[in-house]
Amino acid sequence: MPKHILRLLVLIAGLAGFGLVAKAYFTADSFYQYGHYRGDSIKQIAAREPAYQTPRYCVACHGERHAQWSANSHKSVICEVCHGAAEGHPQNGKLPVPHDTARLCSLCHEAMPGRPRTQPQVEIALHASRQQCVVCHNPHAPKIAMGVAKVAGDPVEGKKRGVAACASCHGELGLSPNDTWPNLAGQHPAYLQRMLAAYKSGAQQDVMMSPLSEALSDADIANLASYYGSLRCRTAAARSNAGNAVAGKALSRNCAVCHGDTGLTANAAWPRLAGQKLTYLVNALKAFRAGLRKDPMMAGVTRGLSDTDIANLAAYYAEQSCEPTVQARSR
Amino acid sequence: MPAVLDLAPYAGWVYPNETIIEWSVLIAVYPYITGLVAGAFTVSSLYQVFDMHRFKPVAHLALLTSLSFMLFVPLPLLLHLGHPERALNVMLTPHLTSAMAIFGYIATFYLGLLMLEGWFAFRPYIVEQAQQRSGPLGAFYRALTLGSHDVSGNAMHYDRKWIFALAVIGIPAAHGLHGYVGFIFGSLKSREWWSSDLMPLVFLFSAIISGVALVIAIYVGSCRLRRTPVDLDCLKGLACTLWGFIMVVIVLEGLEFANIVYKAREGIEAIIQYVTGPLLIPYFIIQFAIGAATPLLILTFLIWRGITGRALVAGVTVSASLVLISVMMMRWNVVIGGQEISKTGKGLLTYQMLIWGREGAITAAVLVFAPLAVLYGLVRLFPPSERWEAREDADTQVVGAAPEIASQPA
Amino acid sequence: MEPKNKKPPSQDRREFLSGVARVAATTTAVLGGAALGALARVEAKADMPKQAVAEDSYDPSKHRWGFGVDATKCIGCLRCVEACKRENDVPQDAHHFRTWVERYVYLEGEEHARIDSQQDPVNIEASGSEREYRFANRYKGMKVEKAFFVPKLCNHCTHPACVQVCPVGATYKTADGAVLIDHDYCIGCRYCVQACPYGARFFNEEKQVTDKCTWCYHRITKGLQPACVEVCPVSARVFGDLGDRESPISLFIRNNRVQVLKPETGNAPNVFYVGIDKEVS
Predict the structure, then answer these.
(1) CB atoms C201 and B101 under 8 Å
(2) Chains that touch C (3 or more CB pairs under 8 A)
(3) I need a labelling partner for B124 at 20 to 30 A (CA). Which of A253, B142, C8, C278 fits?
(4) What pTM did the predictor assign?
């Protein structure tokens, strides 16, 4: 065979050999382990950390809220649907509380062709116009108990009882003489009824209110609630320097979803705050924060408030006008 | 940083993930270039294997054309890949259930085969240049000789055997190299426009006509540049080859389209709407009418009337150019067209080709025309055989007429 | 004619022998290298450890995952679409989805459904951005005869076309039935994107590899459910072990007339649908 053919064959064999060796060397070690792919890939994919933690994770710290949520109709909507994935929480801070609930809730509840009839859905424009959903609906217990609206009490009887039992602290006309005890005039009857019932049953505890409420009958409670709810509210006259109302206004954005922009809310489930006594508000917020006053929603929203924040918020609400004829209704 | 997304506007219903057309114009250029390689090699093998001596004037040129385009074959793919640095994965762990996996080895093998056949074909010239030239070019030729300057009768005998063997292996290799591209499209179940048993054949035969047309165009062009007369017998042979294969292409492509329309499977409305709308001009006018039917008529006329001389050269060159355009259009219509018809069968998208960018029109044009520049260089390094064959040893045959005399067709 | 280079016989023999020696040496080197390479591979195959995952407790061969979709329940809230994007770092735009929801609406007098999904500009406008998703209430006030929502995702087929066409082995089917993509091996050719008849795969321009739903493999191997199943408020998505007779998916299949998408492709999908319609494919 001619020289050049021989050399050519050697060259080809050499290149082929080099290629085979390179192939064996560069092929990933775990390849062919389970099939025609890199075995390590499975481990790598499975090692990723989950973002959504599921309510099992939330219940550890948010027990009360979890209990309320899981006992009501939104129990099929996990916490992270509205609050975002809990990965990195609480190390990275709070999870967002949705503000534009009208936008969020309508994702599921806007009446739309294609949605099964079993899904609760409303024509947004006819249902709530531009109001935020949480004005009326507690997202963790969304079904509204219609009983909240009406309190079947007799204001006349309530006045008799109130003048005797309550006026010494809360004032003749439901306007408290000092800053510590709250005004009751013009407050939602249903809220007053709920609070009195809570004090009576022991669900809420207060060194003064508890024994007083235990002495009341259910009829008394209804009457008192109707009476005080019918009274005319008046804003506290003096502006206190105890807090920065401007800063408070900025903070109140989070509260407005339930309590209204200026503390006037149409929903009887939550108390009106406008014109309420400043020190009372401060004490109440601190009590919620400490868990001494029990409310899952209030506990959550006060958890991150500092004493300064609380003072500012109280100052803001205290100076709001509570007279409905003067103030625009909260949206 | 995410790349610019060229979102495809659409009408009707398409899957959300379809709104970005993934295979760009480069994926249409790839089968085009590979087709030119396969077709040019087929021309070369008409002389090397089937002993058709009328094709001797273009045999070496066709081989060098095939080689210069083959060098560019991996480029459109590398430019398209998300991770070109991992491209060799296809050589390390080819997944043999995938038609695409075979590319790595077949392309390497075929490139080697082309280089080898070219080496054997030009060996006498290489040896001569190694002995005569100095400087870097001389070193280049000397390296190519592999240290052996043996051009004796015995050596040439071996060389001829190798050339023949390589050409014989090269035919199925070239057709495999291009046929698998057709199978890549034809084997998919997801797109009605692609899914067809005929796809490998359609690609293959249109590749052959594109290669023959390319050789014609380059041969005529190079004769012009060298100021030598065109070998009319050779040109007529090429014209007949082109003519025959165009007919096969028209039949196959027509059959494929007819099948789709006749079977009228789900999604046919979208296909008909597409073909009679956005694809009307590219498909019926350019690919079929101008690009296939017209050259066929021209060539029929030329052959039937026995036209010769300058008219023959002009007619055949025009036909060849039209065929080159038509085959590019066919690749476009298959690759881009297939993606413009949604997998839902209920929608159409529009591919918006970028001008600049890694997968833009300019890149595509460069990839198609740059091989011509390489070919020019290769021809300078390895000139046509009539220049040096006369100087070969006496015991090797000098085939074909001297360049100055243009032969008359029989 | 006499050959030019005639050598003395001894010289000829020497050259021949040296040539043979050279060829032999090279051949040995080549074969030896190949043998070493082959041996290494054989060793790896012989060990054949069980498919293990990060946690030692998970054994893929003990599970056979399946997915169910109840299109009669879906309300089109798209929480699943957003949750999937959050869970899996899917590109935040309206053109890359691991899962999506389609809406089918038949208006009175029309034979064919009007179909739209998250990439529709009308829906993008309703949500205000491409990062958040909602269906626009575009048929309000029209006479709608029939309408429903269909969630879609990768079907994790038993005979996946995408796995078949991958040229390098970057996508594969695991022993527990998930079809996954190796992002460190994928070369980004996008053949799999073309091959999938369901449009489930997409190309991630940032990572320059293809991607698709993994059934949240990183969750299911830890005893969790895929994110989309977890967040669905109406239980329209069902997931579980087909090997367990009492798993949600086994019950789903047993208690319903289920069907799959595009059965004629032969891919044998593992996502089972209830309540879809002639136009859904």
Answers:
(1) no
(2) A, B
(3) C8
(4) 0.79
Backbone dihedral angles phi then psi of residue C69, each to the nearest 5 degrees: -130, 125
Tokens representing C221? 């191997």
Contact B77, C143 (CB under 8 A): no
Q: Is A167 on the interface with C (CB under 8 A)?
A: no
Chain B residues within 8 A of C116 when measuring between CB atoms: 13
In a domain, B396, yes or no: no
| CATH topology agreement for domains A155-230 and A245-318 | yes
Q: Quick check: A303 contacting B, CB < 8 Å? A: no
- Suggest the residue from B88, B117, B148 to mutate for an interface test with chain A (most A CBs closer than 10 A): B148
- Distance CA(A52)–CA(A81), nearest Å, equals 9
Pairing type for strands C99-107 and B10-13 reads: unpaired
Q: Which of C78, C144, C230 minimises the CB distance to A54?
A: C230
Q: In which domain, by residue range, is B329 found?
A: 10-391
The count of structural domains within chain B is 1
A 22-41 residues inside an 8 A Cβ radius of C: 23-25, 27-39, 41
In the numeric block, the tokens 């498909």 are attached to B283
Inter-chain CB proximity A17 and C34 less than 8 Å: yes
Residue that the structure tokens 């009208």 belong to: A102
Q: Does the beta-carbon distance from C49 to A45 stay under 8 Å? A: no
Q: Per CATH, the architecture of A245-318 is what?
A: Orthogonal Bundle (1.10)
CB C26 to CB A49 under 8 A? Answer: no
CB B194 within 8 A of CB B27: no
Each residue's pLDDT tens digit in chain B (410 positions)? 344 567 889 999 999 999 999 999 999 999 999 999 999 999 999 999 999 999 999 999 999 999 999 999 999 999 999 999 999 999 999 999 999 998 889 999 999 999 999 999 999 999 999 999 999 999 999 999 998 898 889 999 999 999 999 999 999 999 899 999 999 999 999 999 999 999 999 999 999 999 999 999 999 999 999 899 999 999 999 999 999 999 999 999 999 999 999 999 989 999 999 999 999 999 999 999 999 999 999 999 999 999 989 999 999 999 999 999 999 999 999 999 999 999 999 999 999 999 999 999 999 999 999 999 999 999 999 998 877 776 544 444 444 444 444 444 44
**What ipTM does this complex have?**
0.89
User: Which phi and psi (to 5°) does residue A210 adopt?
Assistant: -60, -55
Length of chain C: 281
**Nearest chain B residue (CA) to A35:** B95
Sort out which chain A residues have CB atoms less than 8 A from B158's CB and list them.
Answer: 1-2, 5
Domains of chain C (ranges, CATH numbers): 63-157+214-274 (3.30.70.20)
Would you identify the CATH topology of the domain A155-230? Cytochrome Bc1 Complex; Chain D, domain 2 (1.10.760)
On whether residue B398 sits in a domain, the answer given is: no
